[in-house]
Amino acid sequence: MTIEEFETYSLYIGVGGLIAFMAFIVWDLAKKSNAGRFGTFVLFSALALGLLGFIIKTVLVETLQQ
């Protein structure tokens, strides 16, 4: 395994773990603040937009390199 491969795998594992932790934080925040269904939906939508931005960035970088 080269250093570049290790860095790539570490990035995806680290970001995946961070996203899972943020999902737990958002769920806990929604539960403790009694946000209701709509409030929980809004909180998770904001988290999903951040995830979507990371995915779009990754796709754009890969397409521009080829």
Key features?
mainly alpha; 2 helices; elongated
Compact description:
The chain is mainly α. It has helices at residues 3-32, 36-65.
What does this structure look like?
By secondary structure, the protein is mostly helical. The chain has one domain. Helix content is 91%, strand content 0%. The chain has helices at residues 3-32, 36-65. The radius of gyration is 16 Å and the shape is elongated.
Query: How much is the average pLDDT?
Result: 91
Total strand count, please? 0
Strand proportion, as a percent range, falls in: under 5%
Number of helices: 2
Could you name the ranges where pLDDT drops below 50 across 5 or more consecutive residues? none
Radius of gyration, in angstroms, nearest whole number: 16 Å
Q: In sequence order, what are the helices and strands, one letter per element?
A: HH
Q: Helix fraction?
A: over 70%
Shape summary: elongated
Q: Kindly, what is the distance between the CA atoms of the first and last residues, rounded to a whole number of angstroms?
A: 23 Å
**How would you classify the helix and strand content by structural class?**
mainly alpha
The profile of the biggest β sheet is: none
Task: Give the oligomeric state.
Answer: single chain
Write the layout of secondary structure elements.
Layout: H1 3-32, H2 36-65
